[in-house]
C-alpha cells in the first residue's frame, strides 16, 4: 500500500468528489487543457472549494495520480498471495490490474499521463520531487510483478525470461487500456471480466513454461 498519503485524503473532509471530477476532466482533456475552472464547473462548486484543498492544478493532478496508484495496489496486493504457482498468481495479478484499469479508468488515465509528464520533465523543481515520489511508487508496483515472475521461473511454471522486460511489456499492454478503453453504456462487470481475461491470456501465453 502507499505510505504517507496526504492527510486530506483520509480525514473525511469531503474532497473525494473533487478527485473524481478532476480525474474525469484530466482524462478527457489532458493536464494542459484542464483548468481549475473546468473542474469547479463540472463539480457544480466554486473554485474556492477546490483551493481549500489544493493550492494549484498541479497539486490536484498529483493527488489524483496518487489515488490512482492506491487503487492499483488495493486491487493487486490481495491476490498476490493466493495459493498456486507463480504463473497462477501472475495471471490473477494481471487480471486484477486490468479490472482496476477499467473500473477506475479516469484515475488510471491520470497515472499514465503522470508518467509522460515525468519523462518530459515539464515541472518545477518542487513538482519534480513530488512526481519523482509518485514514479517511485509506480516502480514498487512494477516490483510486485517482477517478484512473482521470478518466483514462477524458480518453480518452473514460467520459462526462463528477462524478468524486467517481461514485467514492463505485460504492464504496458494493460496500461494501454487507458488509451483505448471506454466503457459502453450497457457494460457489465462480467463484460469487463471477460475482456480482462482475454488480454491477460495473451500475456500469460508468452511466458508460460
UniProtKB/TrEMBL annotation:
This is TetR family transcriptional regulator. PROSITE patterns: HTH_TETR_2. It holds the Pfam family TetR_N. It comes from the Bacteria. The keyword Transcription regulation applies. Residues 35-54 bind DNA. Residues 12-72 form the HTH tetR-type domain. The keyword Ribosomal protein does not apply. Keywords: DNA-binding, Transcription, Transcription regulation. One of its GO terms (molecular function) is transcription cis-regulatory region binding.
Amino acid at each position: 500500500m502507499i505510505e504517507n498519503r496526504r492527510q486530506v485524503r483520509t480525514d473525511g473532509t469531503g474532497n473525494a468528489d473533487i478527485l473524481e471530477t478532476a480525474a474525469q476532466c484530466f482524462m478527457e482533456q489532458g493536464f494542459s487543457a484542464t483548468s481549475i475552472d473546468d473542474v469547479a464547473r463540472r463539480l457544480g462548486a466554486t473554485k474556492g472549494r477546490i483551493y481549500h484543498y489544493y493550492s494549484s492544478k498541479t497539486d490536484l493532478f498529483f493527488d489524483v495520480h496518487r489515488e490512482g496508484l492506491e487503487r492499483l495496489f488495493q486491487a493487486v496486493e490481495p491476490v498476490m498471495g493466493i495459493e498456486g504457482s507463480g504463473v497462477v498468481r501472475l495471471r490473477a495479478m494481471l487480471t486484477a490490474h486490468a479490472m482496476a484499469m477499467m473500473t477506475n479508468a479516469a484515475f488510471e488515465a491520470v497515472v499514465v499521463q503522470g508518467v509522460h509528464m515525468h519523462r518530459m520533465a515539464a515541472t518545477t523543481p518542487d513538482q519534480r520531487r513530488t512526481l519523482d515520489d509518485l514514479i517511485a511508487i509506480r516502480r514498487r508496483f512494477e516490483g510486485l510483478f517482477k517478484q512473482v515472475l521470478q518466483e514462477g521461473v524458480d518453480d518452473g511454471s514460467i520459462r526462463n525470461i528477462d524478468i524486467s522486460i517481461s514485467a514492463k511489456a505485460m504492464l504496458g499492454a494493460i496500461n494501454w487500456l487507458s488509451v483505448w478503453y471506454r466503457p459502453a453504456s450497457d457494460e457489465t462487470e462480467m463484460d469487463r471480466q471477460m475482456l480482462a481475461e482475454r488480454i491477460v491470456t495473451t500475456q500469460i501465453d508468452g511466458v508460460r513454461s
